[in-house]
Amino acid sequence: METGLKGRVAIVAAASGGLGLATAKGLAAEGVRLAICSRDPRRIQDAANQIRQNYQVEVQAQAVDVGNYQAVQNFVRATAEQFGAIHICITNAGGPPAKGFLSTTIEEWRRAVDLNFLSVVCFAKEVIPYMQRQHWGRLITITSVSVKQPVPDLVYSNAVRTAVVGLVKSLALEFGKDGILVNNVAPGFTATARLKELAAVRASAAGVSEEEIFQRWAADTALKRVGTPEELADAIVWLASDRASNITGQTILVEGGSYKGTM
């Protein structure tokens, strides 16, 4: 399938592992030039080297805390200077700690807002002007199925990521006239280090093994299995492509049928 992505320039945040790395690889396989970032300088450089070797595309890698507006601003400007354009931006950030509400702290709430909501605001403010000038752009956020169906022990994520959906809708309406599509992808239980962390919390609370928790999650889906990062990446590549040219302001669930709602 022709995606029209070859030669495009994409920013992928939190791309040193998990969903971000899988997304960067998926875009690289289509010939997209990449600017990737994460907080860990060694891991992001390792990811960049891996992508260059396997896909023979140009990759810029930088250590960035996406909760820091100045750092995001500098990263976007460096990307534009190196590549001359920014066509696609995938926002992503590590999830906040798995906790029940009474165990939360105000400091952690502020960090969750910075990391999982304001980081999207920061990237959007920086990349949209470049997309407007070329009258073509894709801004895609990665959140969680929790924006549709709250997940136990993830109260930070349940509350903060839902705000991203409102932002996505607003940006889609405001910038559609500029040829910019804004969408959200919401993964369910996906085999990442983050999911293993959540499994450990639940296993400890329930007095069972982590394997038992994974089995329960799989049983709660229509497909009876946990998803893979590559399956989420495929959805993002499609949304970034010319094949999704009439889709904007939407939340696409990639969760194997675990969401039980009708809307």
Order of helices and strands: EHEHEHEHEHEHHHE
Oligomer: single chain
Give the C-level CATH assignment. Alpha Beta
The number of distinct β-strands equals 7
**Taking Cα atoms only, what radius of gyration do you get, to the nearest Å?**
18 Å
Describe this protein's structure.
- This protein is of the alpha/beta class.
- It has a single domain (9-189, 228-254), classed as 3-Layer(aba) Sandwich (Rossmann fold).
- The protein contains eight helices and seven strands, in the order E-H-E-H-E-H-E-H-E-H-E-H-H-H-E.
- Strands 3-2-1-4-5-6-7 form a seven-stranded parallel β-sheet, with helices on both faces.
- Helix 2 links the parallel strand 2 and strand 3 (59-63).
- Helix 1 crosses helix 8 (229-240).
- The mean pLDDT is 95.
SSE diagram, text form:
Blueprint: E1 9-12, H1 18-28, E2 33-38, H2 41-55, E3 59-63, H3 69-83, E4 88-91, H4 106-134, E5 137-142, H5 155-175, E6 180-187, H6 193-206, H7 210-219, H8 229-240, E7 251-254
Parallel strand pairs: 1-2, 1-4, 2-3, 4-5, 5-6, 6-7
Helix pairs in contact: 1-8, 3-4, 4-5, 6-7
